Amino acid sequence: MTEVRCSRCPLRQSPSFLENTAEDIDVVQSLKERELRLRAGEMLIFEGQTDARLFTLRQGWAFRFKTLSDGRRQILGFLLPGDFIGVQQKMADMAAHGVATLTDALFCVFRRDSLWELHRRSPRLGFDVTWLTAHEESMVDDTLLSVGRRNAEERIAALLIVLFKRAAALQEDGGASGVPFPLTQQHVADSLGLSLVHTNKTLRKLELLGLHHIDEGRLHMHNGKALARLADLFGDGLPPRRPLV
Amino acid sequence: MTEVRCSRCPLRQSPSFLENTAEDIDVVQSLKERELRLRAGEMLIFEGQTDARLFTLRQGWAFRFKTLSDGRRQILGFLLPGDFIGVQQKMADMAAHGVATLTDALFCVFRRDSLWELHRRSPRLGFDVTWLTAHEESMVDDTLLSVGRRNAEERIAALLIVLFKRAAALQEDGGASGVPFPLTQQHVADSLGLSLVHTNKTLRKLELLGLHHIDEGRLHMHNGKALARLADLFGDGLPPRRPLV
DNA sequence: CGACGTGTTGATCTCTCTCAATTAGAGTGG
DNA sequence: CCACTCTAATTGAGAGAGATCAACACGTCG
User: Fold this and answer.
1) What angle is formed at CA A171 by the lines to CA A169 and CA A172, rounded to 5 degrees?
2) Nearest CA in chain A to B76
3) In chain A, which stretches have pLDDT less than 50?
4) What is the DSSP string of A193-222?
5) DSSP bridge partners of A106
6) In chain A, which residue's Cα lies nearest the Cα of B145?
7) What confidence score (pLDDT) does residue A16 get?
8) Spacing of A102 CA from C11 C1' in Å
9) Which of A140, A50, A61 is nearest to B239 (CA)?
């Protein structure tokens, strides 16, 4: 299984990614150490780990999480192809949160000093990293709004819509055929601060209302409008992203 | 009221800030547009505002928030002197969240293109901005863990400790005389996803247990250890963690 | 075939919310 | 100096959304 050169990165062909210059791509290529494949349910970064590096998720889904010492888990966010992983960890020397896969996944692994090198060698890429980090934060902000101030139905509606849009942006048909949905109900519960049982009942309720449908690991939107109204979400459009790859 | 040159910035004298080179300080100085003073309870950035710029909080406290259309408010985080404001907004053109003051406050206002200029003219400063942004995100992550998985007592304990430490780091005596605490109970409630009434009762309970004391806008720690234990927070560093089951 | 993971559903239980009312400043105006 | 108004803190009581407990169904897998 030979590795892909950054200049041929399949991600770049996706319409939701912006162009990079050839020089920038060379910079990234030179910082890339190797590729890494994990199976579904494996850990990429352990909480508290001290030697984590930087990654880019090329294929598959993953999630970031934190746990309390008695085992309660909070999922901080989901990672989809093109997402950057590990900026937070590189700042302190200990990983503030764990990262695990939801599906089989492929990562690009970058040198430990790449964050600085990136800034030093390409202000443009450095700027992009700041952008990606800020964007990541704003996604956490959105989740915090949900968990802090929305009830169970609203939280689930908001999550379904956001994940649907992110996933749909990565496929040709824009979600017409549904999108992959590799989360178990436990993941949904842990990302929304709900119990597994209540998550199940609420998910069921929305499905019975005909708003969506989850089957065989795929999410189908039946009434996005209604879900958006329920969640008090408006506007579409995820901002166009620049890949770090 | 004459403005302060960045090279004389009082903030830099605080022990919790790192040194910058003279050149870097010049870069920052050249991007600074002016200073801005607001009274307590005023709005710095409105949600959805399209022309917000970048700020640095020089004096006073502020907070970031989002609201649902029916008025429910979630405070995303608190801003203390030295904090950077507006990286998220600069990325989209619309402010994803509002910013308001808790006390009278003084801001440095930067040019709208400063984020890019900063990266372009000083990779070192660009790197710092990335760091700041990542750090900000990790604070939101912490809040999300609280709101999603901690009960009321634990959330309040966690908030008190974190705010105490941040504020204490800014003063000479390290908090021995207590630290400023300009939040009303409504702010505490809105930042933790609790109701005002329950916040009051819980705060009262912890105070009666002798863990802390809030009086005349100041927070005094009486038993930080116990609070930290309650919140499942550890020491100063990052928590020693067991890997996911 | 039994063990396990995931989804489902019913029956309680409880933590937190909502409603209501009171107290204590701080500020305002007559 | 005293009513009047506002904001913030406080406390009690009842209500409810969501948690916890318990079973069961179904598919996969060693």
Assistant:
1) 110
2) A141
3) 236-245
4) T--HHHHHHHHHHHHHTTSEEEETTEEEES
5) A37, A59
6) A74
7) 65
8) 33
9) A50
Sequence-distant (≥ 6) Cβ neighbours of residue A122 within 8 angstroms: A23, A24, A27
For residue B122 the two structure tokens come to 């000083």
CB atoms within 10 A of CB B75: 26
- B91 pLDDT exceeds 80? no
pLDDT confidence of residue B16 = 64
Taking CA atoms, B74 is separated from A141, B134, B187, in Å, by: 9, 21, 9
Residues whose CB is less than 8 angstroms from the CB of residue A115 and which lie 6 or more positions away in sequence, other chains included: A54, A87, A90, A129, B127, B130
Pick from A83, A193, A181, A99: nearest CA to A144? A193
B174 CB-near residues (< 8 Å, 6+ apart): B168
DSSP classification of residue A11: G
Q: What is the dihedral of CA A121, A125, A131, A133, to 10 degrees?
A: -70
Please write the tens of the pLDDT for every residue from B13-56. 766 666 778 888 889 999 999 999 999 999 999 998 888 889 99
pLDDT digits (tens, 9 = 90+) for A38-64: 999 999 999 988 888 899 999 999 999
CB under 7 Å from any atom of strand D: which residues?
A 151-153, 193-199, 202; B 184-186, 196-197, 200-201, 203-204
Nucleotide nearest to B184 (CA to C1'): D8
Alpha-carbon B59 to chain mean position: 12
Reported pTM: 0.93
Q: Which residue has the tokens 């601060």?
A: A193
Angle at B230 between CA B228 and CA B232, to 5 degrees: 65
Q: How far apart are CA A144 and CA A163, in angstroms?
A: 15
* Residues, chain B: 245
| CA distances (Å), origin A62, targets A41, A180, B22 | 9, 13, 43
Supply φ then ψ for residue B36, to 5 degrees.
Answer: -140, 130
At A144, list the tokens: 């915090």
> How many Å lie between the alpha carbon of B189 and the closest alpha carbon of chain A?
10
